[in-house]
Specification:
The complex is a heterodimer of chains A (about 575) and B (about 230). With about 575 residues, chain A is α/β, with parallel strands linked by helices. The chains are: A alpha/beta (about 575), B alpha+beta (about 230).
Chain lengths: ~575, ~230
């Protein structure tokens, strides 16, 4: 069959199971946009290409499939960069397809020419520059394979305009892609597994550190089985939330900079850390010198370059988390570790009374209240997409996720502006789920233009803006570490209700806690996207907090009316 | 100097750092050849684990555009300076081989190796810093030499087993092959005559013995990945 490169492009996408792409047309990608109309692929027109990459990312994280973003050359391609980097740092499988100027113009500074394979080299798992129509199909197939296999990640395919326009006889190929230098799957060695089992059986105060890998490898059932057999409590990373049911008695909650105090203290007291699909990020460990010094460490990780990168481990098990857990479960002893669990309960100490939920009602609206009530009102079943900042941490603390792929957030790169477009992507992946965006007034404005996309596509997404009039997390750091000099953090925002209305969408405002249920009910009853402007307490801070570079047990705690000050244990 | 790989490497590795106290200068080749590896050297190696020294990596890569850029970018990102990088085709179709020398401590070297492995176009990598190797560098040196000094320069070349490959009334071009130390040695003695220009290939390295650098590239071996984990 004679096919143009532009046709081959969509044929490969269809064969890869793609039914929706997020993109923005332009000169160098026009041949592809001309032919898409003949294929069963829905195109979502974004308002900025960054949104396209985030949507592909949100789609990928919600579905577990590869998300696709399309952009033209030059500025279209460079606008993708932040979204690609976000996907890279959180190991999200996306394929970005960019148009490129004709091959004979490469390197000539032609109109809208930019070396996007060069630009994206350090922020992609791999990338391709395709100049020959014959390479389009094999390189795209490789791109999808690389994006989803092993430790997933973004792949960019840059296709010159002449390659899109040229024709060849095209026969679709099937079967596995074979790349000689790419070995995505490993399995842990028996000797190492035996060593790990010995450490687990002998440990008296073991902890599981559950990361994003649990969700990525669909290891939830295996983790549950492992926990129920060994009685080992589970702490989660931000991206690991939902990988283990938050309401399970052995679920401790989140660890790290804004993790629960007892979780961080338990890590410091433990004698064995079993790290599953996580990478000991600095936001998780605090000062590495004094991180879990009493603990032996087992690290289960698919990417071997992560092993011994930040934390020296005693046993490294390189492989898929699910497969590795399956190998470990039969070997480990059934144990009762209630003494250790009781010790962790003791560590909770006064955490409950310090909790913002315990503050006597003072008529103020706190972000934590908003999130807690949202959790209650949605029965913990919503798919929540958060942005980056204080609200992100409050969401992680107060919205209890019992299921995987129900919290989507930019962890590694910490990309403000991620939430709304990622939620749009997630919406396409999970059309039957209730999708909530929780974002700050700052982050929302970075990609607020995508409200227009919601309107055009007729999408229903609930947007909860936690509006405190500040770039809250930076303001909090200024309060704690920069002597309250609020440099460039006060933020004037538009009237978000009117902004929603200007897009033909509904907007609501909430200023008191008792208004929350009605607002949520009204949002749910409204057919399209609804923006709720929650006017929360302006100078609230996220507690506990481990200052950057401080020891994990050295936490700034919430001052409480019952407990004297915020400086003790 | 065809020295025992290990010993020579150690000497070379510390050219720009503290020299190992037990071998101040490279010994004559025959002596080193005979000596083999001594405990002294082994002790030194263990002591050097956590210090930055020059590391040598061998990598087989796919022969296609942009691969060198990927390797270089990975190193640039970590702000390492490449000491030497030699790349060329191999006897295998579509496969190039590179020899990379840079300064790093043991941890950094292990991470670099693991990260090189992650590059899709890299077929095989090995850190041969502590492996017996034959190592060679080739230099062309254009040195001032007129009728009066020519004989002297040629005599010096003889000592280093270098040879003249081009001659003009004012200059000689010398070709020399050997370890970095040998090349540096010749350079030192030629400098007084006036060096006009010089070019070097960078270090090329091959492990000793019959093993074909474990390059059973058709079976794409995954090198004992667990080595890096404890």
């Amino acid at each position: 069959m004679k096919r143009t490169g532009a046709q081959i492009l969509w044929e490969v996408l269809v064969s890869e199971g793609v039914d929706v792409v997020f993109g923005y047309p332009g000169g160098a990608i026009m041949p592809a946009y001309d032919t898409i109309l003949g294929y069963p692929i829905r195109h979502v027109l974004v308002r900025h290409e960054q949104g396209a990459a985030h949507m592909a990312d949100g789609y990928a994280r919600a579905s577990g499939k590869v998300g696709v973003a399309v952009a033209t050359s030059g500025p279209g391609a460079t606008n993708l960069v932040t979204g690609i980097a976000t996907a890279m740092l959180d190991s999200s499988p996306i394929v970005c397809i960019t148009g490129q100027v004709s091959s004979k113009l490469l390197g000539s500074d032609a109109f809208q020419e930019i070396d996007i394979t060069g630009v994206s080299l350090p922020i992609t798992k791999h990338n391709y520059l395709v100049t020959d129509v014959a390479d389009i199909a094999p390189m795209l197939r490789e791109a999808f394979y690389i994006a989803r296999s092993g430790r997933p990640g973004p792949v960019l395919v840059d296709i010159t305009k002449d390659a899109q326009q040229a024709s060849i006889d095209y026969e679709p190929t099937t079967g596995e892609v074979r790349l000689p230098g790419y070995r995505p799957s490993h399995s842990a060695r028996p000797a190492q597994l035996a060593k790990a089992i010995e450490l687990i059986d002998d440990a008296r105060r073991p902890l599981i550190l559950a990361g994003h890998g649990i969700v990525k490898s669909e290891a939830m059932r295996e983790l549950l089985a492992f926990v129920e057999k060994t009685g080992i409590p589970v702490a989660s990373t931000l991206l690991g939330l939902g990988g283990f049911p938050a309401t399970h008695p052995l679920s401790l909650g989140m660890m790290g900079m804004h993790g629960e105090a007892w979780v961080n203290n338990a890590i410091q007291e433990s004698d064995l850390l079993i790290a599953l699909g996580m990478r000991f990020d600095d936001r998780v460990t605090g000062n590495l010198k004094n991180y879990a010094v009493k603990a032996k460490k087992i690290h289960v990780e698919i990417d071997r370059s992560e092993i011994n990168k930040n934390v020296k481990v005693d046993v490294g098990l390189i492989g898929d988390v699910r497969d590795t857990l399956r190998s470990l479960i039969p070997g480990v002893k059934q144990q009762d570790r209630s003494e250790w669990v009781a010790r962790i309960t003791d560590l909770k100490g006064d955490s409950a009374v310090r909790d913002i939920q315990q503050l006597p009602y003072n008529e103020k609206l706190y972000a934590a209240h908003v999130i807690h009530d949202l959790w209650r009102l949605t029965e913990g079943k919503a798919l929540v997409v958060t942005d980056v900042g204080q609200h992100q941490m409050w969401e992680a603390q107060y919205y209890k996720h019992d299921h995987p792929r129900k919290l989507i957030t930019s962890g590694g790169l910490g990309t403000m502006g991620f939430a709304l477009p990622a939620a749009i992507g997630a919406r396409f992946a999970k059309p039957d789920e209730e999708v909530w965006v929780v974002c700050g007034d700052g982050g929302f404005q970075m990609t607020a233009c995508e409200l227009s996309t919601c309107a055009q596509e007729g999408l229903k997404v609930h947007v909860a803006i936690i509006n405190n009039g500040y770039l809250g997390m930076v303001r909090q750091w200024q309060e704690f570490f920069y002597n309250r000099r609020y440099s460039a953090t006060p933020l004037l925002s538009p009237d978000f209700v009117k902004l929603a209305e200007a897009h033909g969408l509904a907007g609501l405002r909430v200023t008191r806690r008792e208004e929350i249920p009605e607002a949520v009910a009204r949002a749910r009853a409204t057919p399209g996207t609804v923006v709720i402007d929650f006017r929360v307490e302006q100078e609230d801070s996220v507690y506990p907090m481990v200052a950057a570079g401080a020891d994990l047990h050295d936490m700034i705690r919430r001052p409480s009316p019952i407990v004297e000050t915020g400086e003790d244990p | 100097v065809i020295a025992h790989g290990n010993s020579t490497l150690h000497v070379r590795n510390h050219r720009h750092r503290t020299r190992p106290p037990q071998s101040a200068r490279p010994a004559p080749e025959a002596a080193l050849e005979a000596a083999g590896r001594t405990t002294e050297h082994r002790d030194f190696r263990e002591a050097s684990m956590d210090r930055p020294i020059l590391r040598t990596f061998i990598a087989y890569v796919e022969d296609r555009p942009g691969v060198l850029n990927r390797v270089a970018s990975l190193i640039r990102r970590r702000a390492y300076n490449i000491e030497s990088l030699g790349v060329g085709r191999t006897h295998l179709k579509g496969v190039s081989r590179l020899t990379l020398v840079l300064e790093a401590d043991e941890d950094a070297a292990r991470r670099l190796e693991a990260n090189l492995y992650k590059l899709v176009n890299i077929l095989w990598v090995r850190d041969v810093t502590h492996t017996p190797c034959v190592e060679r560098d080739l230099a062309l040196i254009k040195v001032k030499a007129d009728a009066q000094t020519r004989a002297q320069v040629l005599q010096l070349c003889e000592v280093f087993r270098a040879r003249a490959v081009d001659v003009s009334p004012e200059a000689l071009t010398i070709e020399i092959t050997g370890t970095a130390d040998k090349l540096d040695g010749l350079l030192d003695v030629l400098r007084p005559f006036g060096i006009i220009e010089m070019v070097r290939t960078g270090m090329l390295v091959m492990t000793r013995g019959a093993e074909e650098a474990e390059a059973k590239l058709d079976s794409w071996p995954v090198r004992a990945v667990e080595n890096s984990a404890a």
